[in-house]
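Hi all, posting the design record for the shared folder.

TITLE: backbone redesign
STEP: 1 of 1
STRUCTURE INPUT:
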């Protein structure tokens, strides 16, 4: 599931940032291409805003009808739930065992990372990629430094992967209770008993958020 239903206003463009040009394609095309090349990925879903339908059609023309389109909601979590409900019957029938959720604004995701997340999610129930954050300090409410946070802190990336039936059930329960998490993993931590495992992320798997991120991604693309 590639999420492209946000506005991306911080990048300063007149259109949704996932449709900005990158390497001769729309930015979100690169994410879809990475997932399409991974064995074991049977269904590709692009979650879009209705007003971006023409741009999405342009992107999807390169995939010969293999990508399904779902309209997103008012929040990221609502958009994910719309897509999960779209897949609901296939999840219930056991045709889809695992769902990977990826931010369309991360165009440089590698196929190897997608494979690692998929493999780990199938083995343990949940997988989240991230980079070790060795530059963090713990501080008090008054601003006093108390040392480094306990354990190992990681900067979370996507795709995040989870067992499909548990993911759908957790999102339905979250909707019933009005809970909105910071990301998919936070929702699963609250409403599912699945163990979520950390998978080493990739340095190049940056998120395009600000205007300067686009030329950086352009320069990194050949790598």
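Okay, here is what came back for every position:
SEQUENCE:
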């Amino acid at each position: 599931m590639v999420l492209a239903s946000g506005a991306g206003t911080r990048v300063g463009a007149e259109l949704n940032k996932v449709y900005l040009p990158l390497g001769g394609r729309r930015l979100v095309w690169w994410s879809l291409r990475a997932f399409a090349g991974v064995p074991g990925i049977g269904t590709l879903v692009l979650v879009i805003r209705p007003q971006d339908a023409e741009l999405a059609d342009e992107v999807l023309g390169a995939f010969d009808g293999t990508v399904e389109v779902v309209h997103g909601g008012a929040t990221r979590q609502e958009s994910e739930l719309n897509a999960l409900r779209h897949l609901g019957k296939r999840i219930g029938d056991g045709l889809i065992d695992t769902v990977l959720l990826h931010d369309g604004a991360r165009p440089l995701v590698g196929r190897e990372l997608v494979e690692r997340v998929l493999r780990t999610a199938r083995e343990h129930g949940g997988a989240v990629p991230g980079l070790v954050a060795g530059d963090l300090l713990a501080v008090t409410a008054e601003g006093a430094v108390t040392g480094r946070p306990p354990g190992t802190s990681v900067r979370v990336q996507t795709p995040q992967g989870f067992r499909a039936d548990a993911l759908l059930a957790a999102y339905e329960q979250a909707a019933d209770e009005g809970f909105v998490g910071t990301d998919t993993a936070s929702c699963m931590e609250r409403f599912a008993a699945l163990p979520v495992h950390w998978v080493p992320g990739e340095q190049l798997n940056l998120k395009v958020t600000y205007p300067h991120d686009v030329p950086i991604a352009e320069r990194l693309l050949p790598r």
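COMMENT: The longest strand covers residues 126-132.
Let me know if anyone wants the other runs.
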